[in-house]
# Entry
Amino acid sequence: MTATRPDTGRQAGPPARPGRARRGEGDRTREAILAAADHLLVASGSEEAVSVRAVADAVGLTPPTIYRHFEDKDHLLFEVCAVHFDRLDREVVAPVVATVADPVEALRRIAHDYVRFGLDDPEHYRIMFMGHAQHTPERYDDHQILSTGCFGSVIDVVSRAVDEGRLRAGEGGPTVLAFVLWSALHGLVATRVAKPNMPAPPVDLLVEAILDAFLHGVATDPT
Amino acid sequence: MTATRPDTGRQAGPPARPGRARRGEGDRTREAILAAADHLLVASGSEEAVSVRAVADAVGLTPPTIYRHFEDKDHLLFEVCAVHFDRLDREVVAPVVATVADPVEALRRIAHDYVRFGLDDPEHYRIMFMGHAQHTPERYDDHQILSTGCFGSVIDVVSRAVDEGRLRAGEGGPTVLAFVLWSALHGLVATRVAKPNMPAPPVDLLVEAILDAFLHGVATDPT
DNA sequence: TGTACATCAGTGAACGCGCGTTCACTGATGTAC
DNA sequence: TGTACATCAGTGAACGCGCGTTCACTGATGTAC
# Structure
């Protein structure tokens, strides 16, 4: 999909990091640390398992080295997830926006892909959207969710749909509309992430039901 | 609202526990521990602050005593929240079901009250609905959310609305409908709980928007 | 009414653990002269 | 071409901490005879 770039996002096995980095090559170690933390997070399925020591071990470094590359543990963890905020935009939202002309159809596609994205690796989703605010470094705090290209793009799509007369914007305009749709999808994903064993209807059925309700409502009388 | 009962749910200050419990009165200590843990959770606003030692301190006991009353920390924590699962049913769902005849109006009321409930003390909500499955003692796991009186009652209300011809049940029937509505509300609350500082439209506006979308849809064409 | 005994709430001290982080350091690498 | 020096990635050892949990115990309370 994207051009060849260093594979920082998703990799299959634990990343290898040969010998000591040369003078200007500290960034390579930094990438290795990020990749190792990412792998650890996915492999363990638990944020708690990602300790500074464990990450250092996985990269083949000693713990103090981590602090040469990251301010502290929270920054490291969130930087891991920043990669996935990018991915969310690059892999889920942007392609649909670029290729699907019909805004309503675009929303449907984004909805399905968003849920898939969340369920594919739940621990990232948990940190990105469900983590304690106090663990979120300030500079990432609100911005990542709201002013990411991501959510902004969705609002744009909704606006387009409203402009083209496809959707009715209520009191709050397109932003509220986007929030409503996102809340439903987020509620769905968050539940699955938190309680994967909870018996529930199939995800795809629920996404469709959410979209249908969102678009057409479930009431019989149009009052 | 409810008859006079020992106030285990919400109290203003840290609970007092005078001297050693008499022979048959171990349960009083147990209640005191639960109340202290609850208070600590609310006061600190963080599950992490609720350690066995901190709870013991708050009650005026030594840590080992906790283990006479609770199997381990997870059980204690979740039992704290079990109180609030009860509250959710008793204070939010049941009163509305008992007093509001119109099922659609009942859903509206429950929606507002549910969101209020969640935002009133976020840390409980977090543990109840957003906590790691592995920290949830097995016997509470799925049951609390789904087969609580709570969610069951909501499904009942939705069923009634469908039976009375007020709502259209889609492919998945009332259960899916209830899930859709709950997902949207949960998504809203969960976001506020996780990122309280995130700029977002006012809650009440969003709840209304969710209800309107859920009931009437936002699409202009009825296709 | 008095005494021996069983019960059981609560204690004191410690277990081992892993955590995030800091410090003064080593030693390889590149650069300036 | 050779040497002194600055840079900087990475280390070893330790800091202090708070955690959940266990153990053998004390001592007050109720009960049986």
Remarks:
- Chain A is about 65% helix and 0% strand.
